[in-house]
Amino acid sequence: MKEKRRILWPKSKCCLKKFLDLEFLAKYGSIAIIIGSIAIQSLNIIENKNFELSFFSIIINLFFLVVVLTKLEIIKIDSLEKYLDSLLKIMIFIFLLNFVAYLFANDLIQNYVYAPLSFLGAYFFFLLLYKKSI
């Protein structure tokens, strides 16, 4: 009886796919992580904490946002198209490096807020890189 009800369900071994749409998470999660990073750096500039480094981080994150929006075909930049996969791999590496650095930081907000956000960002970029239907 149980098999008859499952005929119309897609065959999948992943139980998370029943509850979460990975395509939606990869699209909007990656955009949200980058916008969150830009917002955090903007707050650092407002509070006069590491002005030069925060400004540089905003510029890099804006470039990352353009890369993600180009990958999602929201904007179209022809000169960037052939480098998208390489740039996403670099972004994954940078966010994983940030994750490790935030884990060993002395500040608790970096350990418990910024580190998971960096890891989620790397995961969402990984989904964008290897998911063909996005």
Order of helices and strands: HHHHHH
The largest sheet, given as strand count, sense and whether it forms a barrel, is: none
Number of helices: 6
What's the structural domain tally? 1
- Report the uncertain regions: none
Residue share in β-strands:
under 5%
Number of strands: 0
Radius of gyration: 18 Å
Description:
- By secondary structure, the chain is mainly alpha-helical.
- The chain is 72% helix and 0% strand.
- The protein has one domain.
- Helix 2 (22-46) packs antiparallel against helix 3 and helix 2 (22-46) crosses helix 6.
- The chain is globular and about 45 Å long.
- The protein starts with a helix and ends with a helix.
Topology readout:
Elements: H1 2-5, H2 22-46, H3 51-71, H4 78-81, H5 84-103, H6 108-130
Helix pairs in contact: 2-3, 2-6, 3-5, 5-6
Nutshell version of this structure?
The protein has helices spanning 2-5, 22-46, 51-71, 78-81, 84-103, 108-130. It has 134 residues and is an all-alpha fold.
Features:
72% helix, transmembrane, globular
